[in-house]
Specification:
Oligomer: single chain
Family: Belongs to the MaoP family.
Number of helices: 4
Protein name: Macrodomain Ori protein
Shape: globular
InterPro entries: DUF413
Strand content: under 5%
Largest sheet: none
Radius of gyration: 23 Å
Length: about 120
Amino acid sequence: MQTKIRKGQRAFYGDSVFPHGIARSGYFNKREAEELELYGDTFEGLLSGRLLSENREEKRFIANIGVEHTDLYPVRLWQKYLNALAHIKRRHGFMISEARSRGSVVTPDVEVEPDIVMND
């Protein structure tokens, strides 16, 4: 990728979302995964405010991140990453198993008659 956006201070693997790394996620081709590993830390820092933009292209990146159609490749790449995150955050599963994983009590939908107490 030919860009004036600086490379990240550390490699960006997206470990919190992609436990096996971006390259093995299946959402990105090899080139995109390598570029995210190189520039992802900077992209994330620029958008979170942790890093300040140092050049015009970084300012354009910040300005165009919400734009639907843009000609700036780093913006399209980061939007693809964000779309992958949104896709992963959707949970599919059974209600009971999800409730157990959260520690909630599962109550059946069947009404149970109260026990009849008999006095002897």
